[in-house]
Design a protein that fits this description.
2 copies of one chain form a homodimer.
Chain A (H helix, E strand, L loop, with lengths): L20 H21 L5 H12 L5 H8 L3 H13 L3 E5 L7 E5 L1 H21 L5 H17 L14
Antiparallel strand pairs in A: 1-2
Helix pairs in contact in A: 1-5, 2-5, 3-4
Chain A binds a DNA duplex through helix 4.
Chain lengths: ~160, ~160
Amino acid sequence: MTPSRQSGSGVETPAGRPRGTAFLLSQVGAHAAARFADLLGGLGVAPADVGLLRMIATQPGRSQQSLAEELGVVPSRVVALVDGLEGKGLIERRRNPRDRRNYALHLTADGTHVMTEMRTLGAAHEEEICAGLDHTQRAQLTALLETIAARQGLTPGVHPGYRQH
Amino acid sequence: MTPSRQSGSGVETPAGRPRGTAFLLSQVGAHAAARFADLLGGLGVAPADVGLLRMIATQPGRSQQSLAEELGVVPSRVVALVDGLEGKGLIERRRNPRDRRNYALHLTADGTHVMTEMRTLGAAHEEEICAGLDHTQRAQLTALLETIAARQGLTPGVHPGYRQH
DNA sequence: TATTGTTATACTCTATAACTATA
DNA sequence: TATAGTTATAGAGTATAACAATA
């Protein structure tokens, strides 16, 4: 299965366009992310806000430090993200009387509502991106992607877009 | 196949982590892009330089305008990218005596050399990302991604990371 | 001293708009 | 007037490092 001599490395077409699986992954993945960002625009939140909101919704009372660690970003960035979400009235910082150094983060009623809308958006996005595939193909694709994600050591549910340089 | 009532929309696990195919695509795609950027670092070029170099290599003499149009970016951005690549000695601007308004862009000898190394890097990257998959699975994944790319109207070989807001 | 969070700062990326040279 | 390219500028995103409050 190893052609003795082919044009170049096999990752480009004769016309010079990239054609490898890795490029396709990056291309389609960036498109999916951009489309989701578009959908989110209507809600007034940015892609980076989504992970934060989701973690606070799942584990209310988390500190900024713990979010920074799980997302792989510097604490000062969490300050900016939390400032934004608090300014929009989606979350609130509650002082912990036991240890007044840290905040316990909680969703507000508005924040809970936005989370619900985000889930609806997520389902619509899923449908849009997978539109050309039948049920079997979707399952196949998911399995292949999960295999790569595990092999590459990606943390389930955490987007690498957060990761520090 | 429509469960009458499930936990949420189906795009999140009970623990609140996203699990949809679209999220996986975005996650794995971003990881692939980041790894490629890492590999490129050793060559001293950025991901955004790659498409430009490739287009100039494939069609020498192209103008900055034509690159801007194909990549979907504003001409002033091409100026910055071309400035960078010219500064590194990888490409050169040649005046066209027939129409002195535009430049014909060409790779230098160094640029050609870097293109060769980029192809090698591309093959290594491909191998790294697909490491957990056998030949059949790689072909399956490629086919599924190509189906989505076509359905979503993506231009073959052009990364959406360039696209204008 | 150690920890949580904040501020000040700087750097990169990228778009908009005004401008120059040429046609 | 129209086109190719450039410059000036501004805004978003994100890291580093110094700092304040609390433990």
